[in-house]
């Protein structure tokens, strides 16, 4: 089972904040340490699910030494959070598309906050659901 390092931060008049160095932007909080840990597991699972839906790769967990080498991480307390068991593996494929269609895909994906891979994965899932 893969585990990721989460950093718990606490200011005097705040809840316990949790961040994941391997997943910038994946943050959560809890009013108690137990709640913060539970929220961290949920946040990590949702973030990894989102990466999979967007067709993006899930990074390998960083070592504690690597995480703590960054000055901004030294104020946090490191905990291990298990990755969800069913994190799908991304696979690189090579496809051929007309140049104008690829440009349209890229414009659409960018304007909707998606990657090209994420858009293509969503479009394929949508098409398959319509046929079912």
Automatic annotation (TrEMBL):
Residues 4-124 form the HicB-like antitoxin of toxin-antitoxin system domain. It comes from Beijerinckia indica subsp. indica (strain ATCC 9039 / DSM 1715 / NCIMB 8712). CDD domains: RHH_NikR_HicB-like. This is HicB-like antitoxin of toxin-antitoxin system domain-containing protein. Pfam families: HicB_lk_antitox. GO terms for biological process: regulation of DNA-templated transcription. It comes from the Bacteria. Gene3D superfamilies: 3.30.160.250, Met repressor-like. Signal peptide: none annotated.
């Amino acid at each position: 089972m893969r585990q990721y390092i989460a950093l718990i931060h606490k200011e005097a008049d705040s809840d316990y904040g949790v961040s994941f160095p391997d997943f910038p932007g994946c943050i959560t909080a809890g009013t108690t340490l137990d709640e913060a840990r539970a929220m961290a597991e949920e946040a990590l699972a949702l973030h990894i699910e989102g990466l999979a839906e967007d067709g993006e790769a899930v990074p390998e967990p960083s070592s504690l030494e690597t995480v703590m080498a960054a000055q901004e991480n030294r104020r946090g307390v490191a905990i291990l959070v298990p990755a969800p068991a069913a994190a799908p593996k991304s696979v690189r494929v090579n496809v051929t598309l007309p140049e104008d269609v690829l440009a349209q895909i890229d414009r659409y994906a960018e304007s909707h906050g998606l990657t090209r891979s994420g858009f293509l994965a969503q479009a394929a899932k949508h098409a398959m659901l319509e046929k079912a």
